[in-house]
Task: structure prediction
Amino acid sequence: MSANSAFITLKNVEKIYPNGEKAVYNFNLDIERNEFIVIVGPSGCGKSTTLRMIAGLEDISAGEIYMEDELLNFKPCKDRKMAIVFQSYALYPQMNVFNNIAFPLTINKYPAPIVNSLLSACDEVKKLLGETDWHTLTAALANVMRNKGSKDDKEERIATIFELSIDGAKLLYDFCAKSASDDQPSEDVKGVWLERIRINETAELEKVAQSGIKLNERFCEVDDDGYEKTQVRKLTNYEIKKKVYETAEKLDLTAYLDKLPKELSGGQMQRVALGRAIIKNVPVFLMDEPLSNLDAKLRLTMRSEIVKLHNKINATTIYVTHDQTEAMTMASRIVVMSRGFIQQIGTPEEVYNSPSNLFVARFIGSPSMNLFDMKFDRKGMRLKHGDVSIPMDKKFVARYDEFYKGKIADFQGILENFDAQAREKVLKIMSATGESLSDKKVKKKENIFVKIKEKLDKKKNGADEVPKEKLISESKLEELKNRLHTDGALTVGIRPERIRIEKVQAGKKYNGCFITKPTICELLGGEYSVHFDFCDKDVVARFDAKSLITTNDDIAVSFSLEDTYVFDPITCDVIKELG
Amino acid sequence: MLTRLTDKPKKTLSKSERTIRKEKTVSFVVLFIVTILWMLPLIYMVGTSFKSDYDLQTNPSGLFPSAGQWTLAHYKSFLSADSDAKIFYWLGNSLWSTLLHVGLTVLLDLLTAYVLVFLNFKGKEKFVKLLYLWMAVPGVIGTAPMFAIFAAIRNGLEISSDAGSYAYIFFWIVMPGVSGIFNMLLMRNFFLSIPRDIVDSARSDGASNFKIFTKIIVPLARSTIMLIVLFTFTGSWNSLNWPQLIFSGEAQKWWTVTIGLTKFTDSQAAAAATGVAMATSVFAMLPIIIVFLFTQSKMIDGLASTGIKA
Result:
């Protein structure tokens, strides 16, 4: 495999379900480290399936997924170094929050250096005795020893107070216990302790020397070349506890650690799910609509929290959502999907300002882009609809001709050799236009008789049947050919914020403006969303709420040609972008 | 509850509240009557077991012994060492075989359901259909062929020692019922209701199938396990036909409780033994009541803890 520079690469990934339904077509994407990729699309467009394929929860029907140049296709889900957050939170209902967060740690083994625990503990305690003031140390220790709790609890408390390892804390605890049970308390407790440490150390060092194990300065076992040896082991309870508390603190969950999931609110559950993901300390986060079950306000705060978290832990995130606002606000790059096809990949600005086709233009932006149909008078170089007419320049005409010539060539190519690939091309165009193959959406009842009948019918018809995709592309080609000599309808689009509205004042002249009355004026706080009819379509524009506007006012509407998009309604591709 | 409803101060109720109340009252009354009808034979059994022989003759229809006629004689008669009723042997046999049966059933049901729901293999759907078909076959149909196989293998193996025969017979007491389809499908349906995301999430957390099974699924299935324990315990404890068939001609010590009881209830038993029959029945029912009390509370507990949005 040639070296890919990207962190995660998806190459021609496809998903075909066992029932023959194709959910994802030809998915290609390179993801860089620390990117926040949002896959967005209407429900059923294959975005979750793609995510599940990356996660390893779904088989990959075709294509390859690489992570750091390593093929992931056949790697089991648990070895993929990824964490998933689900829409349903997927918390384990019978475990409390602590156990939920700790679950990944309790079932996995992690590599760790082999440390001689006694020597490192002695060293730690020696340092502690040397550095800390004797009185404060003993006072703190006495405080811990006096409190209730099991031996383990006390040791853990000592470890947290003095920032020791659990072995060091155990040693210190033993010292305390011994001193307390001494009949004749020694004057110089510190001296006794240091002496004990010295005895322990020399004995252990001798043992180590006899067994021929080499240790480095951190008391880790090393091999002959001086590298630390590692072993794969389970984390100790103390290590798990420490990590869970750290994570819980990050997410503000410390107060809920012993609650069951059913006692939490949606936002808290979501945070627990996030906690379970980040405690795994993996480079890739996969999120499957994590915010859709939350209420609107919480969604907003969680949105920024997730982005903050992503930046804080330097993760690479792939985030699936159907909400274009989430995509716009969170993503470093957006992937827009429809019916299993990628429609466009780009930064939020790119996707918003230069949508590749009508589907993306419609889907991204809220309120969405205003679209209206206009006839293009090629000779007069004008876009017309009723009274409205917009003059276009020569450049546009040239682009128009070029566009349709290109499209006709494309379709001729498709029809010339109508194979599976050509079929997929047609399907991709249809995924953007929103047309569907079958006229009737009602699914036929499937029983054995219908199946037999279908089989018989097929035998009769045999190879004569023409695929529907072919018929569609033929009709489309006809339409496209007509465009070059007759006037055809085009779809013109403009973003609401690019439309200029003025309240009509008596006596003032409005040249080149379209005068109308608004149908609805929605106050959003800082601005109005003003709806009015234009070219038989409902059009939305924004209006600063500094001055009042009602449906009784006349408004003068204008926009500049630079701000419009022009789309071809047959293939839904863009003919003219901004500028 | 009825009186409390009428005692309440009159207040106008909405239509829906009135219907709910009406429905509650009706269902309460119906349930109450059904419960009484079901309880009557039980109460009669317990009461009769305390009647003296004289009272049994003079007052056979009374639910309880007449005054001064309470006695523990029937209990004493079969509990005493010299009686020919080997009730403790029977109880022991029933208990260990039933517990083994219940344990194996639950284990098999859990494993089968896990495989059928959470693992993918070729022909899974067909296998489930086969199970449904299998359930449609009444178990009694298998009795004769099963006995033929039982006898044939026994002859083939030439089991002659007592210990060997005992083990062999109880193998046949325990095993056939273990593969009950109904419980398997019950467990499967419960597993289907567990959100798929939970298992996916555990899988991505690094859990193997064994870990998912033991740490996630089985704890969640507690309520269904309790239900199956209750079903299979009563079923196995009360089973009569099959044990009677394969215990015929065997030593009395090897019997299970249900077969032992027939000794008192069949036509050859003297009328005077009615009291003993009732007393042994009461005694034999105790384990089931204990299991019911235990599983019933846990069952509700389990149902409550799984009713969670997750």
About this structure: Residues 163 and 539 of chain A are 65 Å apart (CA to CA).
